[in-house]
Design a protein that fits this description.
Blueprint: H1 2-10, H2 14-23, H3 28-54, E1 56-58, E2 61-65, H4 67-99, H5 109-119, H6 121-126, H7 135-161, H8 165-196, E3 202-203
Antiparallel strand pairs: 1-2, 2-3
Helix pairs in contact: 1-2, 2-7, 3-4, 3-5, 4-5, 4-8, 5-7, 7-8
């Protein structure tokens, strides 16, 4: 149960919780099934409900997606989140040899998955915004959530990767850059999939 509740504790006591996460060495599969997948369901399910049942207003006109078009899009959103955690987690492992001093602790794939999955916790919980989509509120809260995720990443690298604060800053910056590239790639893939696969169908 530590794997599940660590994510919630990270929101209220991040530094102490990161140290606890570093001590409880859960494997990658355990983290993915007990943390990543359950919490990644929150934004997927909430946004499906919000865009199909509540809708959002554009220029005073209420818009919604049809359930048939929203279902595969939210399913791909869920899969992309899980795959994204695994990919960036792998990159954390791959970069560890460059940022860990000679003879120091070399991170495993499990360490990378734990770091990224828990770092994404505010994003997962922020998915609750999807229950009632309001564009300007979503933008403001989205920026705040992104900032907190970045904060968690920067303070989590040192205890998780067992490096100094200086090395942790450089390490976290590299991980952040990889995450941005992965996000841009995801957006590009989404546009391409709209042309060859599921695309949004609107109801007015």
């Amino acid at each position: 149960m530590h794997t599940f509740f660590h994510g919630l504790l990270l929101l209220v006591s991040p530094r102490r919780t990161w140290r606890s996460i570093a001590e409880h060495k859960a494997g990658a599969i355990k983290v993915i099934f007990l943390h990543t997948i359950p919490f990644a369901l929150i934004p997927s399910v909430c946004w499906y409900y919000g865009v199909t049942q509540i809708g959002w207003s554009v220029a005073g006109e209420l818009m919604r997606l049809t359930p048939e078009s929203a279902a595969p899009m939210c399913a791909m959103f869920f899969l992309a989140m899980v795959a994204g955690v695994m990919f960036v987690g792998f990159m954390v492992r791959w970069m560890s040899e460059s940022y860990v001093p000679e003879g120091g602790y070399v991170a495993s794939f499990s360490d990378g998955v734990r770091l990224i999955s828990y770092t994404a916790m505010p994003f997962f919980i922020g998915g609750l915004m999807g229950l009632y989509p309001v564009l300007w509120i979503d933008i403001v809260l989205g920026v705040a959530i992104a900032c907190y995720c970045i904060f968690l990443l920067y303070i989590g690298v040192s205890p998780m990767m067992r490096v100094s604060d200086t090395q942790a800053f450089l390490y976290a910056s590299a991980v952040f850059a990889v995450a941005l590239v992965a996000f841009v790639g995801l957006l590009t893939a989404t546009v391409l999939l709209w042309d060859i696969g599921p695309s949004p169908e609107y109801m007015y």
